[in-house]
């Protein structure tokens, strides 16, 4: 997140003008400053995002949305982002790093258990491949009586990875890291139609460039609108599920 001076985000990335949000960063706080807050944990991935987007796209978007949440809802503290997830479906592409579903589930369970001094925890998930582990972890944590919420941004079924949606978001957040000169469409079939092939052979089995969607017509303005809409939805979910007022 940025401070009043418009500095860089916690991950060191620049933040577009108009997207500088305030809010508490757990990593920069001292323990007496934390209090009984809601902890927002950005959950991302390090994986290929086509030839035109950076490997940390999911992490960057999740971290930005957590910062926006902190600007909208009082007493939200943003944890350092988790940059690795369950990304085995992208293993055929260089640069992808994955800890797998089981390890991720254990990681999230232990993070949730360790956060008992917080009023509640919201995992802000930027990668669809993390969903199975996240759902299992939240079920277990709920069963233990902990206040935990899992949330993820929505998107079109035929634009699920490195297409127009994510490209627009990154054009808003880190335009210098988006290479539109090599941005081309991949497979544009709806994700449910691709699941069997994805489970059998990964993303490379259905898309040679790693894109599930079409980045054509992506724009920073569309990215601004998407990020605002997602952040509003996230804030509403936190208020409703973790009992936080405006």
Number of domains: 1
Low-confidence stretches: 1-23
Sketch the major β-sheet: 5 strands, parallel
Quickly name the level 1 CATH class.
Answer: Alpha Beta
Provide the β-strand percentage band.
5-15%
Please report the number of helical segments: 6
Could you name the CATH homologous superfamily? Creatininase
| Class by alpha and beta content | alpha/beta
Categorize the overall geometry. globular
Notable traits:
36% helix, metal-binding, 9% strand, globular, five-stranded parallel sheet, Rossmann fold, Creatininase-like_sf, disordered N terminus, alpha/beta, 6 helices
Describe what this molecule looks like in 3D.
The protein is α/β, with parallel strands linked by helices. It has one domain (24-236): 3-Layer(aba) Sandwich (Rossmann fold), CATH 3.40.50. It is 36% helix and 9% strand. The protein is built from 6 helices and 5 strands. It has helices spanning 57-72, 100-114, 131-143, 164-173, 191-201, 220-242, and strands at 24-25, 38-43, 76-78, 120-125, 148-151. Strands 1-3-2-4-5 form a 5-stranded parallel beta sheet, sandwiched between helices. Helix 4 crosses helix 6. The radius of gyration is 17 Å and the shape is globular. The relative contact order is 0.18. InterPro entries: Creatininase-like_sf, Creatininase/forma_Hydrolase, MftE. It holds the Pfam family Creatininase. Residues 1-31 are annotated as: Disordered.
What is shown here, in short?
By secondary structure, the protein is of the alpha/beta class.
Write the layout of secondary structure elements.
Elements: E1 24-25, E2 38-43, H1 57-72, E3 76-78, H2 100-114, E4 120-125, H3 131-143, E5 148-151, H4 164-173, H5 191-201, H6 220-242
Parallel strand pairs: 1-3, 2-3, 2-4, 4-5
